[in-house]
TrEMBL record:
The keyword Membrane applies. The chain crosses the membrane at residues 41-62, 74-98, 110-136, 186-218, 251-273, 285-303, 315-334, 340-361, 373-393, 405-423. PANTHER family: CHLORAMPHENICOL EFFLUX PUMP RV0191, PURINE EFFLUX PUMP PBUE. This is Transporter, major facilitator family protein. It is a multi-pass membrane protein. It is found in: Cell membrane. It comes from Heyndrickxia coagulans (Weizmannia coagulans). Pfam families: MFS_1. GO terms for molecular function: transmembrane transporter activity. Keywords: Cell membrane, Membrane, Transmembrane, Transmembrane helix, Transport. Residues 428-452 are annotated as: Disordered. GO terms for cellular component: plasma membrane.
Length: 452
């Protein structure tokens, strides 16, 4: 009679006492292994797409907003900078909260806040006489919301997927990020044909889709133990950076360099298209999308091929920086658009090789309990690269066009050299490694040159 009351009791009655707990545990493992589905991957992929739209979709709209609201170029650029700086500040905070509670508990409110910021900015632009301050307030909300998107999605991928599938999904996350960069200038230009502030109202529409996918299809595994307190958490992170700071900071720098050069060169190209070639609107968006499409495609292919091959990842990172250096050095000599875009695409190919590998390294740097913070700090550094790229390229453009490309080529060469010297795959030993090998592999997948 008692066995029919609850499913758990019924299972215990059917299994021998000494096998009950073991069978139940294996059943949970089977369920967990079956959980991530195609729709789960689609839901995770939608999250970084939201973050990318935040800046790239507005870039074609900025000249129109500047004229409609009577703004200076600096004021118009604040709509990008405020978003990026606020996101960079809040990413580590939300990363810690995602470690303390759960990924979904951070992602869902962040997406809601992102959409609300878009509504506030859109209503202000449509109805208010002094709209700019309200637009910046809306962009601030969006920046806070963006902090809980792509970096947390990376940590979530590491939680839900293992082995080669994790690398493939991380490649898809980066490809989704790149796809957003490809799509957003075109979408922004198309929406601006109707009304310039329509872009702000497009944000909550896209967010609603991502919220639905995340709510329905992402099922996190329950935490097996209580998360550590703040003091113990900080102490653990300090230990991570003490042991692995050299390669981890180099990996952060590599990712930030890719985003810094990407958004900087897009800023340069946008100015050249409009001022030198009188190309704007949708055609301008399509041309800007070419290098982004190359990066997006390469990211997806790279993520699907690298698996857990650390030596291959290292080679691809160094190769990627070589391609970026070659591209920027050659751009010194090409002014015509017909040759400029293909040469620029070589650098985008390099970026597409680097980012999925760096993502995989950083996601696996620590265990699940600290992964949110480590990946979020990486997201902060990437955002700072995005924020710094356009103004730095702008100053270099005013100084010297050849000097700009030579300086950037030297910088990417230096970062590639650091990656070559400070990051190396962990030396694989035989199957007999004992507990020490387990601890080392669980702690990090890379070592700095010269040991720890």
């Amino acid at each position: 009679m008692g066995c029919s009351i609850r499913l758990g009791k019924r299972i215990k009655c059917l299994l021998p006492d000494n096998l009950t707990e073991q069978k139940l545990k294996s059943g949970e493992d089977i369920m967990a292994s079956k959980q991530p589905s195609v729709m789960t991957v689609a839901a995770i992929g939608s999250i970084p797409l939201i973050m990318t739209l935040g800046n790239s979709m507005l870039i074609p709209v900025l000249p129109k907003m500047q004229s409609e609201l009577h703004l200076t170029s600096f004021q118009a650029s604040l709509t990008i900078s405020v978003f990026s700086i606020v996101a960079a500040v809040f990413i580590p905070v939300l990363g810690y909260l995602s470690d303390r509670f759960s990924r979904k508990a951070v992602i869902l409110p962040a997406l809601f806040l992102y959409g609300a910021g878009g509504i506030l900015a859109g209503i202000a632009a449509a109805l208010f006489s002094h709209a700019f301050a309200w637009i910046l307030a809306g962009r601030t909300l969006q920046g806070i919301g963006a902090a809980g998107t792509a970096p947390i999605a990376m940590a979530l991928t590491g939680d839900l997927f293992k082995g080669d599938k994790e690398s493939r999904v991380l490649g898809l996350v980066e490809a989704s990020n790149g796809f957003g960069k490809v799509l957003s200038p075109i979408l922004g230009a198309l929406i601006a044909l109707l009304v310039w502030y329509g872009t702000f109202f497009a944000f909550p529409v896209v967010v609603a889709v991502s919220i639905f996918l995340t709510w329905v299809f992402i099922k996190e595994k329950p935490k097996k133990k209580e998360p550590p307190g703040l003091g113990k958490y900080v102490k653990g992170l300090a230990g991570v950076f003490k042991d692995d700071g050299r390669w981890l900071c180099t990996a952060y720098l590599a990712g930030a360099t890719c985003l810094f050069t990407l958004f900087g060169i897009l800023f340069f190209l946008s100015n050249v298209l409009e001022k030198s070639y009188k190309i704007d609107g949708v055609m301008k968006g399509l041309i800007l999308a070419i290098p982004l499409l190359v990066m997006c495609t390469t990211s997806y292919i790279t993520g699907s091929k690298i698996g857990k091959n650390q030596r291959l990842m290292k080679k691809l990172i160094v190769t990627g920086f070589c391609l970026m250096t070659l591209s920027y050095a050659l751009l010194t000599f090409f002014r015509g658009l017909f040759l400029f875009i293909p040469v620029l695409a070589i650098g985008s190919l390099g970026t597409g090789l680097i980012l999925p590998c760096v993502n995989s390294f950083i996601t696996n740097a620590v265990g699940k309990e600290k992964r949110g913070f480590v990946t979020s700090l990486y997201g902060s550094v990437r955002f700072l690269g995005v924020a710094v790229g356009p103004p730095v390229f702008g100053r270099l453009m005013a100084w010297s066009r050849p000097g700009m490309f030579i300086s950037i080529a030297c910088f990417t060469f230096a970062v590639g050299l650091l990656s070559l010297l400070l990051i190396r795959p962990q030396t694989e030993k035989g199957s007999s490694g004992g507990e020490e090998k387990k601890k080392r592999s669980r702690h990090t997948i890379l070592e700095p040159v010269g040991g720890r």
